[in-house]
Design brief:
The complex is a heterodimer of chains A (538) and B (328). By secondary structure, chain A is mainly beta. Chain A has 8 helices and 22 strands. In chain A, a hairpin with a 7-residue loop joins strand 3 and strand 4. Chain A starts with 12 loop residues before the first helix and ends with a strand. Chain B is built from 10 helices and 4 strands. The chains are: A mainly beta (538), B mainly alpha (328). The interface between A and B is large, with 61 and 40 residues. Chain B: Its main location: mitochondrion. Chain B: This is Metaxin.
Chain lengths: 538, 328
């Protein structure tokens, strides 16, 4: 009975040791959570990489124990060889099994890496990456990659067998809460997802979101991992959005639109948005500036976001830096009646660890400017929803994306105002003011967070922080830029300081702060006292 | 520093829809208010909102924090009367004829104008007045919404469309006759003094003459009353053209795309009558046939698909059980 191992080397040594085995069991990282981790070598055939072609061979009748032992020996010898140096191998074929609905090319697109491997080590790494990518498509319940030897006449090759199990139940639902930094409020969203309707890895979802500041959004979206050869996935989202700003600026905003995610990578994101937006005032109390803005507009804009986030945690950053820059250009249709504007905002964060009690100093600087373009742009007003509004009850430390809020100031609570309509109903009370936002905004923050000296708090992750922030918004359009001066802007900076307790839960981060308003102006909505802020990671 | 209001509180501003067809504002709801303020020699600035065609708040008059919207208190004219700002009608309220004519203009003539702008004509005039500053898709959708809403308001359905049209035109004709008789040779409708009745009627007449197309049936009915035409032209010259040539504080500008001026010498009292009735019959027949054709096409396609189509492309799987060998 010939032992395949002892046959003289008529083939290059490495191919003889080819054994089909699972990448899943070799990896050190915890990448493959849902996969089976079977060691396959016991059940797989030993390959016919001897000098003689042997046909579909089954192992010679050996006892299970003996087979197990020989398999184990082979594995160990292979691992030994791999430790000493690269074991050269190339991929001959990628075989895909288990996909009844999913088109082959979707899976093959994720496996392109495998074609370029040159060694066993690279093959193992590539297989892990492919495994993760396939799982990230969210259309498979499990993904198993098996490495097998290639055809016997081609030594030094391997076949990769990918077995997928498509999701049994394509419909899934979830309810989640998250905070949209651009919108400056937190939302609760319920969504239904349907996976892989057409077999292109397409993910369809419908969602209904309700925001804290009375906004409602109904949307339906599509995510396509591969669309006609484009490198990155394409997302499309049709939405109906209604936002109620009557309390703050006397208008309601309704939009109906379509947004397309054109390009998305780790640092870059390009999206196009086309929407029909209507501003109305059912309260009929709006101030003059808001009255002029009421009506319908076509919004067609391209948005580019550049993001680098090297902080160790978005919820409690103690080390690292982050930078986000968002540029939005509106008015991309040849029609000069659509809304034309250029909006730029940036946000820079830096966290310095201090070494004791897990303390860290967080610094942040953010700013933004918006300007209309086109004929006579310097005298035209900017569009109200595109302006910058500061204030809200989300945590400035976590909200990354642009100038959003200051501790202690309520939603849309600072900046230029205009008196509302006065109704002569006998009372002499003024009706209040509308907050109009600004074309230029700036905020800066400093936050020192540290653990409390009690073990119970530390275990729960509850910590304290001391903070200070400053910010301002100013109007530049309608020829106001002529009256603008940096000195005036700095002199009118609002600021606040405070101390608080941070309670991170599994859903959101809550801060219970005592804020002291150092500087505010007459109409600003800010009060010294205890305030709660929330932040839920998207 | 933060206050954005910069105007004096005494100055009044009228916010109306955009000027067109050689009129300071071509919207039939806004022009009467403009004329009323002019008749009262009330100083005001003119400002425009051309992105909100479906708002019932426009036209409105504002001054500082005071605003008189058109959808409150019976309209801007009524509101200005109540607030003691402008009142031309103080002596007419008790005159029954005046009240009756006011009611007739606000119902019959207003309905006729609404019908003619949105349903009776091809809608081009309405699009120019209301949607020329909005992007095309928005304008188109709003136009269709408005046509539907007008049909609802006037009670027009497929079955009674012709009868309703006849009724609307007949009433307009009666109203024109009555007003023409009332006017006679005077300068104004009542007591030779201007009132809001003149403003409302004049607004209607000017929009009918200038904004509606020459094939308009309503326009042709109006052209039969020469004294009304004379009255309208005279007042237009006095109130609108003389003030626009003077250095008034008005900030509107006539758009370059306005139609050429149509003076009284250009009008004929026998306009081209559009053969509307026959067209409708033919159109209906054609539409019916087109619908049948489309339905037949669709049926054919469905039949083809169900009979000839069937097997989807199978995904052939390489199902090799014996893993060790791949290619024999």
């Amino acid at each position: 009975m010939s032992n395949p191992d002892s046959v003289p080397d008529l083939t290059p040594p490495d191919s003889e040791r080819q054994k089909p085995f699972d990448t899943n069991e070799i990896d050190d990282e915890d990448g493959n959570d849902g996969d089976e981790n079977d060691v396959e070598d016991d059940d797989e055939d030993e390959d016919g990489n001897d000098g003689v072609f042997r046909g579909p061979n089954r192992p010679k009748p050996q006892s299970r124990e003996a087979r197990f032992r020989s398999g184990k020996l082979k594995m160990e010898s292979l691992l030994q060889r791999m430790k000493t140096g690269p074991v050269s191998v190339r991929v001959h074929d990628v075989i895909i099994k288990g996909n009844t609905k999913t088109k082959d090319h979707i899976i093959e697109a994720e496996t392109e890496l495998l074609n370029n491997v040159g060694s066993m080590q690279e093959l193992l790494k590539a297989s892990q990456i492919v495994n993760l990518r396939l799982q990230a498509l969210e259309i498979f319940d499990s993904v198993k990659i098996t490495l097998d030897s290639g055809p016997p006449e081609l030594p030094g090759t391997a076949n990769v067998i990918i077995e997928v199990v498509e999701t049994a139940n394509p419909l899934s639902g979830q309810i989640a809460a998250f905070t949209k930094a651009e919108a400056r409020y937190s939302t609760v969203e319920g969504s239904l997802k349907y996976k892989n309707l057409f077999g292109y890895g397409d993910l369809w979802d419908g969602s209904l979101a309700y925001g804290y500041d009375h906004s409602t959004e109904l949307s339906a979206g599509l995510y396509l991992p591969r669309f006609k050869g484009l490198v990155t996935p394409v997302t499309a989202r049709a939405y109906l959005l209604s936002q109620d700003w009557l309390k703050f600026s006397s208008y309601k905003e309704q939009s109906m639109g379509l947004s397309l995610g054109l390009f998305s990578s780790e640092h870059h994101d390009v999206a196009y948005n086309i929407a029909w937006r209507t501003l109305t005032d059912p309260s009929q109390m709006a101030s003059r500036f808001v009255r002029r803005q009421l009506g319908h507009n076509l919004l067609s804009s391209l948005k580019y976001t550049f993001k680098v986030d090297r902080r160790n945690s978005p919820m409690r950053p103690t080390r690292g830096y982050a930078f986000v820059s968002t540029t939005q250009l509106g008015g991309l249709v040849p029609d000069n009646r659509s809304l034309r504007f250029l909006r730029q905002e940036f946000d820079l964060r830096y966290a310095v660890p201090l070494g004791f009690y897990r303390a860290a100093l967080n610094f942040g600087v953010s700013g933004g400017v918006v300007f209309p373009w086109g004929n006579g742009f310097s005298s035209k007003p900017s569009s109200l929803p595109e302006r910058f509004f500061l204030g809200g009850n989300i945590s400035p430390v976590c909200a990354l994306g642009g100038p959003t809020t200051l501790w202690g100031f309520k939603t849309r609570g600072l900046g230029p105002t205009e008196p509302r309509r006065h109704v002569n109903d006998g009372t002499a009370d003024p009706s209040g003011v509308d907050f109009l936002g600004g074309d230029l905004a700036f905020t800066a923050l400093a936050d020192l967070s540290f653990d409390l000296p009690f073990r119970w708090f530390r275990e729960k992750g509850i910590h304290a922080h001391v903070f200070a922030c400053a910010g301002n918004v100013a109007k530049l359009t309608e020829n106001e830029y002529r009256n603008f001066s940096v000195q005036k802007f700095v002199e009118s900076l609002r600021s606040s300081v405070g101390v608080g307790l941070v309670v991170p839960t599994s859903f959101f981060r809550m801060e219970l702060n005592y804020c002291y308003i150092v500087k505010k102006f007459d109409h600003d909505r800010a009060k010294t006292g205890v305030r709660l802020t929330f932040f839920a990671a998207p | 520093m933060e206050q954005a209001g910069e105007r004096e509180s005494e100055e009044f501003t009228l916010v109306a829809r955009k000027p067109y067809f050689d009129l300071p504002t071509a919207c039939p709801a806004c022009l009467p208010l403009f004329i009323y303020l002019k008749l009262a020699h009330f100083p005001f600035r003119l400002s425009f909102n051309s992105i909100f065609p479906d708002s019932d708040q426009i036209p409105y008059v504002e001054s500082g924090t005071y605003v008189a919207y058109n959808n409150e208190n019976g309209g801007v004219i009524e509101r200005l009367k109540q607030d003691g700002i402008v009142d031309l009608d103080s002596e007419f309220h008790s005159v029954p004829d005046w009240v009756a004519m006011k009611a007739m203009i606000s119902s019959w003539l207003a309905d006729a104008m609404m019908y003619e702008l949105w349903v009776g004509s091809d809608g081009k005039s309405a699009c120019k007045i209301y949607y020329s500053d909005l992007s095309w898709p928005i304008g188109k959708v709003l136009f269709l919404k408005q046509v539907y809403s007008v049909k609802q308001r006037l009670g027009i359905t497929k079955g009674n469309a012709e009868q309703r049209e006849d009724e609307i035109y007949k009433r307009a004709k009666i109203a024109y006759g009555a007003l023409s008789t009332r006017l006679g040779d005077q300068n104004f409708l009542f007591d030779d003094r201007p009132s809001s009745l003149d403003a409302t009627f004049l607004g209607h007449v000017l929009v009918t003459l200038h904004a509606l197309p020459e094939t308009s049936v309503l326009r042709s009915k109006l052209l039969g009353h020469n004294n009304i035409i004379r009255y309208a032209e005279k007042l237009k010259m006095e109130l609108i053209e003389s003030s626009s040539s003077s250095s008034g504080p008005q900030i509107h500008s006539v758009p370059s795309s306005s139609t050429p001026k149509r003076g009284p010498s250009n009008w004929s009292s026998k306009p081209k009558s559009k053969p509307k009735r026959e067209k409708t019959e033919e159109e209906k027949k054609f539409k019916r046939r087109a619908k049948y054709f489309l339905a037949a096409q669709l049926l054919a396609v469905l039949l083809f698909l169900s009979v000839m189509g069937g097997s989807d492309a199978d995904d052939m799987e390489l199902d090799d059980e014996d893993e060790g060998l791949v290619y024999g």
